Amino acid sequence: MASNENWKLSLTFIFQCLLASVVLGIGIWTKPSPSDNLVVRIDNKVLFIIFLIASLLGVFLELLAKKTKQHHFVNGVGNAIELLLLPSAFLAAINLLCLFPMVRFQLSSELLGYPVIILFIAALFPLTFVHVQRAQSLGQRILLLILFNIAFDVASIQLGLLSVKLLSNTIIEIISNVGFILIIGWVMSWWGFKIPELLKFRLNANARIVVLIGALSFWMIAIGTSAFSRADSWIRFLNDWSFKIQSVPVTVIIATITGSFIEEWLFRYAILWQLVKHYRQISKNPILISVVISSILFGVAHSTNVSNGQAIQSTIFQVIMAIVVGVFLASIYLYTGVFWFSVILHSAADLLSGLLVKGASFTAGIPDFFHVELYGLYYCYFVGNFILFINQEEKNR
User: Fold this and answer.
1) Residues in domain CAAX prenyl protease 2/Lysostaphin resistance protein A-like (predicted)?
2) pLDDT exceeds cutoff 60 at 365
């Protein structure tokens, strides 16, 4: 029964790649000229040709995978290119499918927002499935998760550029985030991992309330300092504060929280537990190694902010910060057994560091020596908590 379902998903993937190829080919050939209120504009022929090639590559690699189980370098590169480009290619094809009847029958684009997003997320399940089957080793699986996250982010930006009047970018982001969470949860289930108990709020038996309160309190002090302090020296640290909160739409807050949830879902669930399962078989300290590796990946993921115009020095500092924060959040999650702790702490940091408050965040510019010292003290505390929590977790084993 399972093999039959697998074959159906594989055929669905091949069919949607062929359909995308046909639609993109027609779009390139006819090059329609939609008006300003339509869903997509065909103004980059080269990009659509690349999407067309990626769709045909998807058919070729899937048919090749049916004949051989070997994973050569060329196949690996092809899989990476396919995974990075196909989400955007499918989205472009969906847009064109909506565009043709709109041009033909002069329909409005205002009601097409939800169908476009739902069709896009549904199209990602067969794509994800074929790559889940191909990813056998730990490295391949982690690379799959990271590449899919990048591809999904790029496609989400493309979604945000759609001129659909009914939906705002924040609504699109929220729906996209929920879709990503569902897909990653499905992938982990297919690999044999349990979904975190999202309704669990009881602490692990060996977790101490006093220790946890101390760790959480210091975290909020660190976040509050980043958000509300205007000081640039230790002398001004005690009296230079501003507690002004910005007015932000509720949808923006929800989008930020779901974004924080996604990062925890990816790095503290999907990647962390892949590593734990692997190193439990070959290492005496699987928790320690897994937390460090997943946190390094979490930090490196923030290096992409340099492409948004952020200063290199600030980006390097942010990467270091993200690594330490990743270690702390993973430790809190493993120590308490409650996934929501890391999500809430992460969300608080994202909300207070730049969204609700325009504070003295080092990511806003080149960090000065005072902030290097201040955050260095916080990092020492977080690392100390990490050592305490991990030692407790290793003893529990």
Assistant:
1) 249-351
2) no
